[in-house]
Amino acid sequence: MVQVGVLVNAVGLLISITGTVVLFQHTTSEYHSAIGDIGSIAVAYLGVILLGISISITGIGLLLRTNSE
Question: pTM of the predicted model, to two decimals?
Answer without folding.
Answer: 0.75
